[in-house]
Write a structure and sequence with these properties.
Blueprint: E1 23-36, E2 42-50, E3 60-66, H1 75-91, E4 110-118, E5 126-134
Antiparallel strand pairs: 1-2, 1-4, 2-3, 4-5
Length: 137
């Protein structure tokens, strides 16, 4: 059995994946997982890895995409969330003429994540994916 050393690695407090500067980053989607939010709303957890050569190559970014929930949301909110999901599919060149969407279709797609850097007092900085665009290198 192989032995592994943890020497030189940051504590598991998020420091291994520090927040990167706000900007546009080309990513390859590595996983798409349907989940429920803390409030019980459906969402997709879309994880991507920065692919362009830069200081941030191989950095992991996560888009926590809340999905429509007609039982808990107003009609306008439901429409906005459907439009957001549709725009991600269009950016990934996924056919949106059908009424159905398979989250795994996003796996391996290359897109641009527009991220900001959020810094709150007493907390470590973190990134938020603000929008998803077609790949722009």
């Amino acid at each position: 059995m192989s032995k592994y050393t943890f020497a030189g690695l940051a504590e598991s407090t998020g420091e291994m994946f520090p927040a990167i500067p706000a900007g546009r980053y080309p990513v390859r989607i590595s996983s798409v997982e349907p989940k429920d939010s803390k409030n019980g709303n459906p969402m997709l957890v879309i994880r991507g890895t920065v692919i362009a050569p830069s200081d941030h190559e191989n950095t992991s970014l996560t888009n926590w995409l809340l999905l429509p929930n007609p039982e808990k949301q107003e009609e306008e909110e439901v429409k906005r969330r459907i439009a957001e999901l549709k725009n991600i599919c269009i950016a990934a060149d996924i056919d949106v003429t059908d009424d159905e969407f398979e989250p795994s279709d996003l796996h391996g797609c290359e897109l641009t994540f527009v991220v900001d850097r959020e810094e709150k007092e007493g907390e470590k900085p973190r990134n938020n994916v603000k929008s998803v665009l077609p790949l722009q290198v």
